[in-house]
Amino acid sequence: MRKFFVTGTDTEVGKTYVSSLLLEQFNKQGLSTIGLKPIASGAELISGQLQNEDALILQKKASIELPYQAINPFVFAPPIAPHIAAEKSGKTLSVAKMIDHVNSISAKNPDVLLIEGAGGWYVPLNENETLADFVKTYGCSVIMVVGMRLGCINHSLLTYEAIKNSGVAIEGWVANFIDPDMCSRYENLETLKKLLPIKLLHEVPYIR
To answer: Is 88 part of the annotated catalytic residue set?
Structure first.
């Protein structure tokens, strides 16, 4: 089983869209897939259950059908930092809880297990742990989604250094053109190609 963790240089950089494209590609290769979003802030009541739009997309794109709760076990209504949302709802997040859940899902033995993060690399789970600690403990290979907009060079280099310093494997990065009005977009892309010492996996054009 290949395990990937999709992180972003910031929030709202298109992690879910890139994750859905990755699942589609793996499916086309004849591989069985599961897409998880263990933690999600920002959800609505659907049929009496809090559900997050991003998690629903991953559920739909994966080849192995799972109930919503399996895809997104820790879901909170307000679109705020997960550890704050958890505290407000009287719950706690931890690496151990995430590992227990992901291990139960990996028992389905997919060829590819893709896990989408929440926000960026160092999003807190509690006072002592971050999502980076989960990735280190579980042993995923990281795919970094770069939201191509003003400031992306600095955010990309900082995120890359943080991932590298965590000691985890980095599969590569994806350039996601999220701003149709970005000035010098291809010059920025060429700069990142030169400065990031990891593989550019794909360029995703702007799609409204």
So the answer is: no
